[in-house]
Amino acid sequence: MQNRILCLIPARGGSKGIKNKNLAILKGKPLLYWTLNLAKKIKLFDKIVVSTDSKRIQNYAKKNKVESPFLRPKNISTDTTPMKNVILHTLKYYKKNNYLPTAVVLLQPTSPFRKKSTLIKACKIFIRDKLDSLFTVEKIKHTQQPDYIFHNKNNFLKNTLKKLNKKKNRQSIKDYFALDGGVIFIFKSSTIKKGLISGKLSYIEVKMPECLDIDNLDDLKFAEKININL
Hints:
Blueprint: E1 5-10, E2 25-26, E3 29-30, H1 31-39, E4 47-51, H2 55-63, H3 83-96, E5 103-106, H4 116-128, E6 133-140, H5 155-165, E7 176-179, E8 185-188, E9 201-205, H6 217-225
């Protein structure tokens, strides 16, 4: 069966760390622009959509020739809304419009430095290995204990990352890994209801500045100083 990949870019209007964060200016362009621009370069996507509760963001997406056919309900546009609900809402909309992707690639605008090559690699591994989930991870300082970084209640994810962290002898190589801020997540549409990170899964390591997650003004100022061609 042909792989139909939907690229979903979640970009709500509200944010505690930075007012109107997704439209905050980074290197002369709104933060959202960099993810839209990259997504449009990936030929593996047969559809790109911005899910937002903001009319302003919706208009910006359409101006940049990216679909944003609905405004997300406020009850799934809060700081505590699980991303699973956002994805399922989008899939429900497209199912009603006779389109159901085999996989969803989630690209959050707060990771503007993700690379085209990394994204293509992730998609190809996901397809080749017939995965249910693929996510990016970053190496953390050895002084951080992995037991303290599992904020996700998903035990499957917790145990998977623990196995990854125990791959090598801790006395000889103190490398620990954690989920990054959301550089790349890929999910099989048919398994999302069971959990975003479940089933047959794999991971790709990303490094700075690719793994930078812009959450507050300090992050934005730091990102502005990074010398990189986007």
